[in-house]
Design brief:
Layout: H1 2-12, H2 17-45, H3 55-86, H4 100-129, H5 137-159, H6 168-219, H7 222-229
């Protein structure tokens, strides 16, 4: 009932979330192509990272990129919110004053904190399994693409809900790398069977989440409302 009333409220406000979703899907496809080209370009065309034979050296290198990511993607979000509060009645958070710009910056900050956890595990795991100077370019490529597409998400969010989809490629990259790392860990623990089991289990969970949310969305669709009224 709550989801149906929410859909009717959005329709009353003239907000077509399905149209926004279609626009977002097109933007995601375009950003995925751009991210893939950039990642593979850095991975195979950038100069090799030297002296990366030891595990400690690879993890230190990943840590350096992680610090860059935290500075430019997370610290800047904190600064954006702080400056917004210093220049408005939002200085007192308990007042409840929030501009659209402040709300977007707060959501960017929360989203980046969430994505940073996945990115951290993916980046350090990739560094652990990237053997040799040449393979370590994958760590560099992953960090650069993630940072750039965090900014794309932030800037796009200030334009529209659909435009925030520009950052989806960075999220997908972290997830793909993390899946790879988890598969390698499972392989180390139990061989190919354990690795395949981990991948199948994760895929099953993703499929269950997709179908459950899709069913709820269809149940709350305008067509469901109109058919019930007739």
């Amino acid at each position: 009932m709550e989801s149906k009333s929410g859909v009717r409220e959005l329709r009353g406000q003239g907000i077509d979330w399905r149209r926004q979703r279609r626009s977002g899907a097109a933007i995601i496809a375009a950003s995925a192509v751009a991210a893939a080209l950039l990642w593979f370009g850095i991975r195979y065309l950038a100069p090799p990272i030297t002296h990366m034979d030891a595990v400690a050296d690879r993890l230190i290198y990943a840590f350096k990129w992680w610090c860059v990511a935290v500075l430019f993607c997370f610290a800047t979000g904190i600064d954006a919110v702080a400056h917004e509060r210093l220049q408005s009645p939002a200085f007192d958070p308990l007042v409840g004053y929030e501009t659209k710009r402040l709300r977007i910056n707060l959501r960017y900050l929360q989203n980046t904190l969430e994505q940073l956890i996945m990115f951290t595990a993916a980046l350090f795991g990739l560094a652990l399994y990237s053997l040799g100077d040449d393979a370590m370019r994958a760590v560099e490529a992953t960090a650069i693409v993630w940072i750039l597409f965090r900014f794309a998400f932030w800037i796009g969010y200030h334009r529209s809900a659909a435009m925030r989809s520009l950052g989806a490629a960075g999220v997908a990259l972290s997830l793909i790398v993390l899946i790879y790392v988890a598969a390698r860990i499972a392989f180390d623990l139990g061989g190919p069977i354990a690795s395949m089991t981990a991948l199948i289990l994760f895929s099953a969970i993703e499929a269950a989440l997709f179908w459950s949310t899709r069913f709820r969305g269809e149940a709350a669709s305008p067509r469901a409302d109109s058919s019930k009224q007739t």
